[in-house]
């Protein structure tokens, strides 16, 4: 029996008969109020993804003497790499009971998960998970930056997690200049014929947008109607999201998903997801910035990895926080042993398009 076989003894997919043991484990290690214990969230996350597998939910458990001592979850998704679609999975919720750490449980769980797809990807993992993946040979892609557009410097000064440093920096420019820039870019977008339309739910038009926008991104998770409907319209948290189309006549130029969180009592707009046709990203974000200003938000924030977004966002006054607001948002990938050709394109962070809609990054708000 090989070392890997020995490590993987006791690791198997979740079965309904595991419910009680899993609930006990999650209550003890995630907390009694954790989202993992919500039945609606569990059903949506593991049983309803568009790319769900016939073998069952992507949730693997390690049991010893009938008790769960570790778990590894996954969210299956379709990944466009170049012109090909590959089977991929977001690695989420790796947790091992403290007394079973450094005893092969974590590696066995992550190896089982990563071997189920062409490529495993982890975003915003805990320090313990990061160390475990690092030891297992995952490729470290660095951090997903956070872009912050301060709208009201004085109010941001009171709530900035950097002791007001960011707000003071932007205050040197001044609110009038920021407001003028926002109005200027918004006016330019409207002169080009773009307008912001709030919608109740996504529809078939996003499939055409996906086909037009996807080729500009070398590595991107599929964002078609099926995915957006699952991710934002049918989630138990659907009422937290506002959905916008950027339209020019009858043509859908882009979509943006916004969530309004509260940080120390002040409203902050969080761009959870977006996708734009080539050349329309700046217009989309300028219209969203103008909306945030009109509605009294103190800032607009977007966590995204997108090489094509850096310059347009900088021109509009967004600050790039490479280490995020609170802690770095790390990203790691692991190609399957028979898919090592993915290490090149998927191992370069400049190729990736990532937002809060990917993995489980957007499940919690700023103040949670």
Automatic annotation (TrEMBL):
SUPFAM superfamilies: Acyl-CoA N-acyltransferases (Nat). It comes from the Bacteria. InterPro entries: Acyl_CoA_acyltransferase. This is N-acetyltransferase domain-containing protein. It comes from Azospirillum thiophilum.
């Amino acid at each position: 029996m090989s070392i890997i076989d020995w490590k993987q003894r006791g690791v198997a997919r979740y079965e309904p008969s595991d419910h009680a043991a899993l609930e006990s484990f999650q209550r003890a290690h995630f907390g009694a109020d954790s989202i993992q214990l919500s039945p609606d969230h569990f059903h949506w996350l593991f049983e309803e993804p568009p790319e769900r597998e016939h073998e069952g939910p992507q949730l693997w458990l390690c049991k010893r003497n009938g008790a769960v001592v570790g778990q590894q979850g996954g969210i299956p998704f379709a990944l466009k790499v170049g012109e090909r679609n590959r089977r991929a999975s977001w690695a989420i919720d790796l947790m091992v009971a403290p007394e079973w750490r450094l005893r092969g449980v974590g590696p066995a769980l992550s190896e089982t998960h990563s071997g189920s797809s062409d490529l495993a990807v982890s975003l915003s993992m805990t320090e313990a998970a990061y160390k475990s993946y690092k030891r297992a040979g995952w490729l470290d892609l660095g951090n997903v930056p956070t872009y912050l557009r301060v709208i009201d410097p004085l109010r941001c000064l009171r709530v900035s997690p950097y002791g007001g440093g960011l707000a003071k920096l932007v205050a040197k420019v001044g609110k009038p200049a920021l407001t003028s820039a926002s109005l200027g870019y918004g006016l330019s977008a409207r002169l080009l014929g773009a307008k912001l339309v709030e919608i109740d739910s996504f529809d078939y038009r996003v499939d055409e947008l996906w086909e037009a926008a996807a080729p500009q991104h070398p590595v991107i998770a599929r964002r078609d109607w099926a995915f957006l409907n699952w991710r934002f319209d049918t989630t138990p948290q659907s009422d937290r999201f506002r959905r916008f189309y950027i339209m020019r006549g009858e043509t859908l130029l882009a979509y943006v998903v916004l969530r309004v969180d509260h940080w120390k009592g002040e409203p902050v707009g969080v761009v959870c997801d977006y996708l734009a046709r080539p050349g329309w990203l700046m217009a989309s974000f300028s219209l969203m910035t103008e909306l945030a200003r009109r509605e009294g938000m103190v800032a607009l924030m977007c966590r995204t990895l997108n090489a094509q977004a850096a310059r347009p966002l900088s021109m509009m006054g967004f600050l790039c926080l490479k280490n995020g607001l609170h802690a770095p948002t790390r990203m790691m990938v692991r190609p399957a042993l028979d898919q090592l050709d993915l290490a090149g394109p998927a191992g370069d962070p400049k190729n990736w398009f990532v937002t809060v809609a990917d993995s489980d990054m957007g499940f919690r708000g700023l103040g949670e």
